[in-house]
Amino acid sequence: MLECVVNISEGRDRSALVELAEVCGPTLLDQNSDYDHNRSVFTLAGPGPADAIAATVDLARAVASRLDLTNHHGVHPRLGALDVVPFCEIEGPMAIAVEAARAFGYWAGAELDLPVFFYDEADPEQRSLPVLRAQAFSSRAPDAGPNQPNPRLGAVAVGARRPLIAVNFFLASGDVTAAQEMAHMLRERDGGLPGVRALGFNLADRGCAQVSLNLTDLERTGLEQAAGAVERAAATANCSIGEMELIGLMPESEFARLSEEFITRHRLSNNDTIEGRKRI
User: Fold this and answer.
1) What CA–CA distance (Å, rounded) separates 181 from 268?
2) pTM for this structure?
3) Rounded-to-integer distance, Cα 38 and Cα 27, Å
């Protein structure tokens, strides 16, 4: 099963989001939108690679015709309106995801006039998404499409990777400094947990701060382990954690590793997994 997790830079225009969801049809397993981030995540999957690629192409076309990054405001980093498009092979070889990512990337460069940057397994140098964001248009030219950002749509990052977990933790206060300190403690590149990327945000609309994590190597750092580390980091930063929010879906194999206490406390179920949602 091939999954594509399309991240777009729009989380506020409800009519646009309804239109985009309708374009996806039955391949849409999950959608999450956030006002402060001004960002939405569409999780698509088909029974075969062709189905997932076709649905991603349809969604990308709709994003390109509907969105405009010119007056975009949001706390999340972004390259473009169609911001990040990773393909993930759930059960088969990575080569399937790489082939899909390359095919989609070259299509987006030619048909949507978008600069395309490949990352992770789709990039011959296997550069990560954070490295791509830092290098794009400065020390690194696009891999496909035009050499300059599209005036209305920006650029797009297209990758191939194993499934990851995106999860947010909301602080009980609006202390963004504490959230950023916690992110520093947690992220791998600063000596924190293996495979963890972390950012701290101020969410003005919600009136609180947030620590946002990507768990990119679930064999080394799983969801329950990361949540425990967040609690310890919060204690060190002299703050407390409220709600946990899963963005998108997790692999069923990771859900199987969670304790019953953790599942109950955070109101999780097999419906929060890629495979479970696909079976509905």
Assistant:
1) 28
2) 0.94
3) 23
Residues paired with 238 in a beta bridge: none
d(CA 259, CA 245): 17
What's the rounded Cα separation, in Å, for the pair 60 and 57? Answer: 5
240 contacts 171 by C-beta, under 8 angstroms: yes
Cα separation, 261 vs 185, in Å, equals 25
48 pLDDT tier (thresholds 50, 70, 90): confident
Domains annotated on the chain, with CATH: 2-160 (3.30.990.10), 165-279 (3.30.70.670)
The tokens of 154 are what?
Answer: 């920006």
Smallest Cα–Cα separation from 59: which of 130, 131, 10? Answer: 10
The crossing angle, in degrees rounded to 10, of helices 49-66 and 94-111 is 30
CA distance 175 to 228: 20
Sign, Cα dihedral of 146, 150, 154, 160: negative
Identify residue 92 by its one-letter amino acid code: G
Using one digit for the tens of pLDDT, what is the confidence trace for 232-244? 999 999 999 999 9
Residues with catalytic function: 76
Kindly report, residue by residue over 12-46, the tens digit of the pLDDT: 999 999 999 999 999 999 999 999 999 999 999 98
